[in-house]
User: Fold Threonylcarbamoyl-AMP synthase from Aminobacterium colombiense.
Amino acid sequence: MKTKVYKVERWNPEPHIIAEAAYAIRSGKLVAFPTETVYGLGANGLDDGAVRKIFAAKGRPGDNPLILHFASSEDVEQVAYVNERAKLLMDSFWPGPLTLVLPAKPVVPNSVTAGLGTVAVRMPSHPVAMALIKVAGVPIAAPSANRSGRPSPTEAASVLADIGDDVDIILDGGATDVGLESTVIDVTGPSVVLLRAGGMPVERLEEVIEEVKLVPDEAKKKRSPGTRYRHYAPLIPLLLWKNGVLRHSPLVMGKRIGYIGIKEPPFPVEEKILFKTPENYAQGLFLAFRTFEKKGIEVIVAEWPNSKGIGLALRDRLSRAAEEEL
Assistant:
């Protein structure tokens, strides 16, 4: 299959390109597209056969649920039972990088919910994503558009490199804004539970709702995508520089070292990528992994960020990629 790659204007995506991509979605095909967080691999979320193509393309375990993307909060009623707390969160933070886990209606395929009885839903803010969902007229199931376990793609070239042969259309809308996946919270119970830290800081959520519980039990973790332990990982070892300490430091001896972070590296390195803010760090993290791979770097050392704001999500991604505890 020859993948079609279309460059699209971010703020005014070309209607004929969006129409072709939307038709592909309705026809059971796969379309990769930009969101404000990362690039998503989209299929008709109500078509079980199309959804299973996502799992095949990514090599994704079938017990890992997917997120359904919508063009309006009202449309979520098609697939989920929406409570008042969820409506408040939608009104406050949608469109944006926040995913809500809600009780699922029978119309949602088990391939989307992983048989859990709940469904993850969100409304992205990227104009290309919104245009595609509106014209397609169906909820779009879309995990990150990469091989399972790899760093999520923040530009179209990474999508093409990872899964290009398995995607019908890639919409190239440039680099994404946030660089990390959405925050996922469970709003089905008496308390709001954080299932995955992401682009929406917990501090912002707590400005409009009660305290968000940060440590879910293992059963609830299974209700969210992206919570398997080894995830977001580069092909080369990743070590974390935490509080002036580098665990497994013998691994860097005699190696070509690449460094990423905000502060200057603690020792001489061959390549370094420095960011001005935690937000910049989040936006550039996954691309930095891929850049060092291409340059033949043998070990990556990453600065452990502060846990405030986007830093909590950065810590989550770094710990999973390095296979270290938070």
In short: The chain has ten helices and 16 strands. The longest helix spans residues 278-294. The CA atoms of residues 6 and 17 lie 7 Å apart.
